[in-house]
Amino acid sequence: MTPAPLPDDAWSAWHPAELACRLAGVARPWCVVGGWALDLWHGVETRPHEDLEFTILRADFPRFRTALSGLRLHAVGDGHVEPLAAGAVPPADIAQVWCEDVAARCWRVDMMLEDGTPDIWIYKRDPSIRHARGAMVRTNGEGIPYLAPEAILLFKAKYRREKDEADFAMALPKLDAAQRHWLKAAIAKAHPDHAWIGAL
After folding, report:
1. Distances (CA, A) of 87 to 4, 30, 61, 90, 189
2. How far is CA 170 from CA 29, 92, 102, 166, in A?
3. Are 171 and 196 in contact (CB under 8 A)?
4. In the chain, which segments carry CATH 3.30.460?
5. Residue 111's pLDDT is what?
6. For position 3, what pLDDT does the model report?
7. In angstroms, rounded to a whole number, what is the distance separating the alpha carbons of residues 21 and 166?
8. Which CATH architecture has domain 1-147?
9. Could you tell me the pTM of the whole model?
10. Rg for the chain, CA atoms, rounded
11. DSSP bridge pairs for 132
12. Which residues of the chain have pLDDT under 50?
């Protein structure tokens, strides 16, 4: 019998450490993104997080699906959340997969699909913005990989929600000169009139 659809807000997300434990056997690139990535960089949880996001290379989806085999996966796009059939690969226009804990009736983690390579990180909203993956993915003291703060802030620059503004204000004093330079150039290219450019 197919479980009833979960509400979109039925999140009880894992801590990044739980995700890292479950993915310990996957020898392919992945990293935490979103607000949690900034907090892994800060070394402390600066605010509550309603979800947990991580990114993988699109071609590696079958491996990560196997690693998370206890979860029911759903393709997310255009405001719709649709279950993925067993063994199915998300279509090319889907870049987000929510992972449902059926027994607990909640979402545990949000898997993002990216089109970079093991060596190159590519900004999905403008593929001309790219960087060596080794420079863009860091690891915290517990060995959890996360996307560098300058890349996270580039994503957040699009929305400028209250939490994005707070995240930028907290991160700005800690960014070094190279991080500021890269982020300023990337925002100038993606959002030429953005207010953060002056702050950087």
Report:
1. 21, 20, 10, 10, 39
2. 28, 35, 36, 6
3. no
4. 1-147
5. 98
6. 66
7. 30
8. 2-Layer Sandwich (3.30)
9. 0.95
10. 17
11. 120
12. none
Q: How is residue 69 written in tokens?
A: 């085999």
Q: Which residues pair with 145 in a beta bridge?
A: 139
pLDDT in tens, 25-67: 999 999 999 999 999 999 999 999 999 999 999 999 999 999 9
Pair of tokens at residue 55: 């990114």
Residues 6+ apart with CB under 8 A from 122: 114, 115, 116, 129, 130
